[in-house]
Amino acid sequence: MDFSTLRTPIYICEEERLERNLQLLDRVQRDSGAKIILALKGFAMWSTFDLVGKYLHGCTASGLHEALLAREKMNKEVHTYSPAFKEEDIDEIARISNDIVFNSPAQFHQYALHVKRINPAITCSLRVNPECSSSPVDLYNPCALYSRLGTTKANFDESILPHLDGLNFHALCEQDADALEAVVEAFEEKFGSYIDGLKYVNFGGGHHITREGYDVERLIRIIREFKARHNDITVYLEPGEAVGWQTGYLVAQVLDIIDNDMKLAILDTSAEAHMPDTLAMPYRAMVRGSSEAGAKAYTYRFGGNTCLAGDIMGDYSFDEPLHVGDRVIFEDQIHYTFVKNTTFNGIRLPSLGILRQDGSLHVVREFGYEDYKNRLS
């Protein structure tokens, strides 16, 4: 592709890489007997949902709007969870969801029978906290001390059992199957007496299944053995990042290069607005053709085009000097990026594009002033 002709910034999802991930996830489904649904919080490029829906069983949503998107754009299974549901949303959520996941026994008591009256086919489940996690960052650790996510064993209310269809846990963040194995052991130790007789258990997300080196066979074994221990119960996984992992990039443009004891390249994108996990996680996004600072002849600090002093992507070195107008390609920027974008400082949102398997680029959406204005009043 001739990146110099692109209007930047733009996210580009490569359809071939996306399908490769989906095929691997489908093999996990076939070999383990699990059902995999897409977590929209990590990947919500609905223009790819025809392809995603060929392989996965549906979507997991984090509230009404994601549930509406799942029903409208994929129309397969819709599982809806929220740390706390609002009364004004619950009826519509019940109508469009196949499963609703409550975060606490109190909300289960408040809404479970109500949603089943609205939608007799809906299943109702409870998210539990197995109090076991090796998540590398507390910001993304659902089982951290004082976590609000999920019900601990000490707070489990057995009076919900007659109406309980499933249990959910989510304890991982970009982790391998060995971490899952430890969590499953803790989950069974605390909640195992409630499993038999349920319709399903959801192992949550955070499984880095499509990452090179992930132990796929161990994951399959964990699921198969769990199902064998519990009367072939249905098991769900709900990855988001594993669907979009390494499926595309963000293309930006160098707008200016200034010098303040080092070369500073200002881009038409933003870490704060367009790559938020690079600041929150934090991590250093890879840039195509670059290396660590000082490793190559020409080093630059990349900064965003906002007024936030800390809007910095990092320091990168290149074999050749950069020039105004050059394109910069941030790798692996399809998951947990545009789903979290903001119009902070009025900066334009990056366009969304799909590189089709025949080599053509389809620019699905471009953004402008109206998108900024309509979020304000």
Find the structural class using helix and strand composition.
alpha/beta
Poorly predicted sequence stretches spanning 5 or more consecutive residues: none
**How do the strands of the widest beta sheet line up side by side?**
2-10-9-8-7-6-5-4-3
Largest sheet composition? 9 strands, parallel
Percent of residues in beta strands? 15-25%
Write down how many β-strands occur, each being a DSSP E stretch of 2 or more residues.
17
Number of helices: 11
Number of domains: 2
**CATH superfamily heading of the largest domain:** Alanine racemase
CATH level-1 class of the largest domain:
Alpha Beta
CATH topology of the largest domain: TIM Barrel
What is the straight-line distance between the termini? 40 Å
> How much is the average pLDDT?
96
Oligomer: single chain
Instruction: Assign the CATH architecture of the largest domain.
Output: Alpha-Beta Barrel
Q: Spell out the helices and strands N to C.
A: EHEEHEHEHEHEEHEHEHEEHHEEEEEH
Helix content: 25-40%
How is this structure best described in words?
The chain is α/β, with parallel strands linked by helices and 377 residues long. The chain folds into two domains: 3-11 and 247-373, Lyase, Ornithine Decarboxylase, Chain A, domain 1 (Beta Barrel); 15-244, Alanine racemase (TIM Barrel, Alpha-Beta Barrel), CATH 3.20.20.10. The protein is 28% helix and 22% strand. It contains eleven helices and 17 strands. Helix 1 (15-32) runs parallel beside helix 7 (216-229), helix 3 runs parallel beside helix 4 and helix 6 runs parallel beside helix 7 (216-229). The protein is elongated. The two termini are 40 Å apart. The mean pLDDT is 96.
